[in-house]
Design a protein that fits this description.
The protein is an all-alpha fold. It contains five helices and no strands. α2 packs antiparallel against α3, α2 packs antiparallel against α5 and α4 packs antiparallel against α5. The longest helix has 25 residues. The chain is elongated and about 45 Å long. It starts with 27 loop residues before the first helix and ends with a helix. 32% of the residues are buried.
């Protein structure tokens, strides 16, 4: 089939039961680059960015959860795509990777097995929230 080359048959990602607690939560280089973007004109840039990410991520996770339960692969794919990018932008690369897998599943038209990856994604989001809050506190 023509679309087979764009549709992964077996997305590669850590096992949905594997713990990601040993991986760094945030990429230090990304965090440093974001901190350097703050200046006298916008000293709250990093804090505002983190706050916006948290709000958007919560919304995206809620929409994805609903989509998975409704077997709505298209909506799951759209929300995962958006969250994949924003997670990478704040240095949450493991979170971004779980979003990539959910996006690929959705692009393939399936939500089969998405519950396991979504559960892993939400656990990773908890780690990301804590790490970003710690970064915010360090740079007040």
């Amino acid at each position: 089939m023509m679309t087979d080359k764009w549709t992964p048959q077996n997305p590669t990602v850590p096992s949905p039961t594997a713990s990601s607690s040993s991986a760094p939560v945030l990429d230090a280089d990304v965090i440093q680059a974001l901190l350097e973007l703050a200046d006298d004109d916008d000293p709250d840039f990093f804090s505002d960015l983190v706050d916006q990410f948290m709000e958007d991520a919560q919304t995206s996770l809620g929409t994805m959860h609903t989509a998975i339960n409704a077997h709505d692969a298209a909506t799951m794919e759209q929300r995962a795509h958006s969250l994949k990018a924003s997670s990478a932008n704040v240095g949450a690369l493991t979170m971004s990777e779980f979003c990539r897998v959910l996006q690929e599943m959705g692009r393939a038209g399936s939500t089969d097995g998405a519950e396991q990856y979504f559960a892993q994604l939400t656990r990773e989001f908890t780690r990301v929230k804590e790490a970003l809050a710690a970064e915010q506190a360090k740079h007040l």
